[in-house]
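Kindly draft a sequence, keeping tokens residue-aligned:
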Amino acid sequence: VQLQASGGGLVQAGGSLRLSCAASGRSFSRYAIGWFRQAPGKEREFVAALNWSGDELYYTDSVKGRFTISRDNAKNTVNLQMNSLKPEDTAVYYCAARYTGTYYRETDYTYWGQGTLVTVSS
């Protein structure tokens, strides 16, 4: 599975962005997908994830109620709708795919996209 993240950009605090993760490969629907982010000078952290069917959703506490993850297996895409953005959401966002393992564990993800930069100004 090859992943391509897009949709990042510069937005003011309180604004919204929609990130997309486009996947190639016929087995995309078998994989759980996660979004991670890495802020400048910090380690990469879990943001959100969903299972292969999209009916199990997981979020880190800091984005609950603001971010929504969804997938469309027919289009081989996973989206991350980000609302009420804060300056602390500034980071490079990565999408990743895993076949087994735990949704928040970075090392359980096998395939990674290249990342897309989100900058939230105050």
Summary: The CA atoms of residues 43 and 74 lie 33 Å apart. The mean pLDDT is 96. The chain has no helices and eleven strands.
